[in-house]
Amino acid sequence: TRGNVLFLILILGFGGSFQNGYHATGLSSPSPYIQSFMNSSWYDRYEEPPSPHTLTLMWSAVVSMYAVGGLLGSICVKFMKELLGIKKAIICNSFIAVVAVVIMVTSKYANSFEMIIVASEILGREELWNVVICVSDCFSLVQILLLPFFPEAPRYLLIEKNDHEASKKALQSLWGPGEYKEEIEEMVAEQAAIEMARPKSLLELFRDKSVRWQIITLFIIGTCIQFSGMSAISVFSFDIFLEAGIPPEKIHYVTLGLGASEILTYIFCGFLIECTERRPCCGEVLVPCALV
Fold this sequence. Notes:
The chain is mainly alpha-helical. The chain is built from 14 helices and no strands. The longest helix is centred in the first third of the chain and has 33 residues.
């Protein structure tokens, strides 16, 4: 391609999906150091160490805040998209990530464990656990600096703003010169279908028999993923491996191997889905899991 779409994919990938995985698994390795900081911060403030129950409660708050932030973000994403557009909404999200990192970096110097709970984006080692987090946030800065030079999403321009000419120019900027009649016709058809369909409330969606099986399928898949234990392993892998008898100095390598196996699994599943489609692939995966 002669456009800029590949460059845009890299920017959005490292600034979005990469950071999500980075922070989802980043709580594990520095967890002893963070809990030690929370313990000392509490002692300096109240002149007595926190009880094990209190420390566990605070650590649980740190772990869960990332998910809470993701929930709040998913709730307001439609409003932000309509207010700012997709490109500006992504830039705004990157600003929020930068603010979170500033809070995290200064939490150690402010001796405030509450700031960790607010920021809840962590990775590092004992003396620099609050600083190394800035490494991942470099991608947020890259998004803030470079995204303004890219066009708005063509689909947003045509369907949301009804600007056919701007949508065509955006396609040409991303993919190179061309008329893109087929792509524009598909978006026009989608726009007409959206305008004809009446917006439904959540309750109406659950009552709609035409999408009932789709909702049930999504619910089952989401529930199985959450109860598979992968989230717990990602966040509490250090404690899990320590309880399993793995030496602390070796846990980092085991965690790295776990992450590498996840990446290989994602790549393999992508090719597997392309070859067998989703439904047979789900069956092939679920049957061995049930046997285990």
